[in-house]
Amino acid sequence: MEHTATLTRYITQFVDQLSYSGVEDVVISPGSRSTPLAMTFREHGTIKHWMNLDERSAAFFALGIAKDKQKPVALVCTSGTAAANYYPAIVEAYYSRVPLLVFTADRPHELRDVGAPQSIEQSHMYGNYVKWFHDLALPEDRLLPYVRKQASRAVHESTSGHAGPVHLNIPLREPLVPDFSTPGCWRGEIPPVPVMINGSATLNDEQIRLFKERLLSGQKGLIVCGPQSNGQLPYYIAQLASKAGLPILADPLSQLRAGEHDKRNVIESYDALLRSEAFKDHHIPDYIIRFGAMPISKAYLKWIQKHSQDVEHFVVDEYASHREPSGVPTTFVFSHPAEFCEQIGKEIGEDGKETEWLSEWKSLNVEAKKIMLASPEPALNEGHAVVYLSEAIPEESNLFVGNSMPVREVDNFFAASPKKINIMANRGANGIDGVVSTALGAAAHGKNTTLLLGDLSFFHDLNGLLIAKQKKINITIVVINNDGGGIFSYLPQASNSEHFEELFGTPIGVDFEKVVSMYEGSHRRAINWESYKEALRLSYKEEGLSVVEVMTDRDSHVAFHQSRWSEVADLIEGWKC
Hints:
Layout: H1 2-20, E1 25-28, H2 35-44, E2 48-51, H3 55-69, E3 73-77, H4 81-84, H5 87-96, E4 100-106, E5 133-135, H6 144-159, E6 165-171, H7 205-215, E7 221-225, H8 233-244, E8 248-250, E9 266-267, H9 270-273, H10 277-282, E10 287-291, H11 298-306, E11 312-317, E12 330-334, H12 337-345, H13 356-373, H14 382-392, E13 397-401, H15 405-413, E14 421-425, H16 435-443, E15 448-454, H17 455-460, H18 465-471, E16 475-481, H19 500-505, H20 512-518, E17 522-526, H21 529-539, E18 545-551, H22 554-573
Parallel strand pairs: 1-2, 1-3, 3-4, 4-6, 5-6, 7-8, 7-10, 8-9, 10-11, 11-12, 13-14, 13-15, 15-16, 16-18, 17-18
Helix pairs in contact: 1-2, 1-6, 3-5, 3-16, 8-12, 13-22, 14-15, 14-21
Organism: Halobacillus andaensis
Domain Menaquinone biosynthesis protein MenD middle: 218-401
EC number: 2.2.1.9
């Protein structure tokens, strides 16, 4: 009985400190060794618990909750390979800067490395993909202050600096069932550890002066914003651009394309413009100030690499990092991005500054958008699936986008909108695994959520649909089904017809209607544009899982895009500079 009492006090103090430190959600996968953790989270009451049977899906589901709420989410699993299934989501969380608290139950030390069942080496098993690792001590009554301290530190480590995952390995001896009638549980004799406070970096007066001089110099500048999740930052970037008279090249995941902020200087069609050699050679900025990660656009990447010696690059990031994959010479500015914009903006005048440089970008953007968004042919295509989706998606929504082609279609075809749409994707490691589960996590607390992804990504995470069925999560999933991997058609290997289809095209031929039925969702297959619009309309009126399948032709996909880009290039050739 003394062991059970000690175990109970130790784990209840640990979980209670997590709650005190701000943790609101935990995703639990079933198992024996994790019994004390699972039961204690369930008993605590203030932390919402989610049961997810598949650890890989569970980890991505937690990732989605954390992305939506911008708060750390806990994960609990048993010992052994259960913990290994977390790995892909932890890698994604690390690179996309999402706070996760990974709690893996483990055998006690005497049962490690001796052939005990369901026992693997769990210490440091996630390597450099977690910000902090700690192997907790076995439960002892004298260690209750210690275990609260470690819980508090885990939350702080996951959110301090650049957010990310942390890993606590928790060894536990049998018997494993806690007794919540034990004296000394929860908060009481052992006080909680105070919540730690993070500061932020700001510019000093000399640094402000240097940027003020640059923005007022009359040089041709650009603001670029790549993927980032701060919903307040678009307002500050738009205000700075308006005062400085600068175009904003806005990645679809920048949060700058949708919302109520000023979008007069937002250039959405920059990818199409930068595919024109004439445009790239005649529109060379003197400097670029970038916020967020590198934009998705490969045309942008090639452009800045081509002019790497002609353009001065600044990357603004709140904490020290070197997130610049292009290899161009770069000055890193470690300052809170919103404060950077506000500090500089106060020094450079009023809103609404117009320059010839800005006017030309804006005019060409308008004309390029007309071409890209022009009425489609009768046959369904991925680009206009995005156009009509952007029109149908409800206000105050999440739009979660799959990798490979879907996120690039959103880049090319999602125009600026006054709707409040939070556009998200797993762009840390850019994988197709776990996309369904991540989107369901983003939808878990009731926010309208639409997932746009390809058939291979959908297939890859069908297990993730179980929690939608069990928890009645409302989500619309738009599956672009071209029966294979469409992005490979744009790569050099597409010309090797002998091996392409088997190794890269990878058609799967799955009837998704039957799969969706298994998970008690609705399924509608769009065969023309009217049926697609109607399917979207109906999906947003019903509850639970709703899947809209859009049947497209992979063989015509490249030709469609190239024809639109060619029209934009012709526009630029005839433009009077």
